[in-house]
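Homework help board

Subject: predicted structure for assignment chain

Our instructor gave us this sequence and asked us to write out the predicted structure in token form, then describe one feature. I got the tokens but I'm not sure how to describe them. Can anyone check?
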Amino acid sequence: MGVAALAAALRWFRIDAQSLWYDEGISAHQLTRSFPDILRAAALDSHPPLFYLTLKAWGEAFGSSEIALRSLSVVWGVAAVVLVGLIGRRLFGGLTGTLAALLLAAAPLSVYYSQEVRMYAQVTALGLLAVYAYTRRNYWLYALAGLAMLYSQYLGIALLAALNVHALIWWRTRPGREWLAWLAANAVVALGFLPWLPTFIEQQGHPLNTSARTVEGLIV
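My token output:
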């Protein structure tokens, strides 16, 4: 509890010290669009749509000021610290979990991205939720967190791959029914991402969100 409070305090400190920069402006601009329009605009960006949709809902609830928009990442950042503590405690004991959470709470990059109106704090927290669900062998929670992670930021693919490699290495320790649940959970992730897969493939042709189509969509 104390580590989470420290994480929150560090992430709130000077959260409005500078104005939104270009990428944050792209995120903030999504609040001017409807939810269906956000999906269409995200297809022209280099990122999937879930963060923009979440930010839209957050902005409607709490306002569109810099502090209000950045507070979403604060929440995700604190959640990541809590999840690191839970994972460390489950795998290595309470002391290790507390130290791991403390290190993440004070990590400069973690604090920085927890104050930015971008998807990086969200994808980190969702990825850690997937890891926590995996350590608990709660594969349906893993599937939901993994799918949300992919729709937040494509780097989540690497984390899912790492978890599957770990599962393959330790496959002998798991009963047959558990393997079926694991395979089913990964199938849910794959099928859930399938509708966005053509867009993901197309986006690889314009990997930077400063592409002409994105800038045009931002101006419009």
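Reply (TA_rk): Your tokens look well-formed. For the description, you could write something like this. Residues 2-215 form one domain. That's the kind of observation they're looking for.
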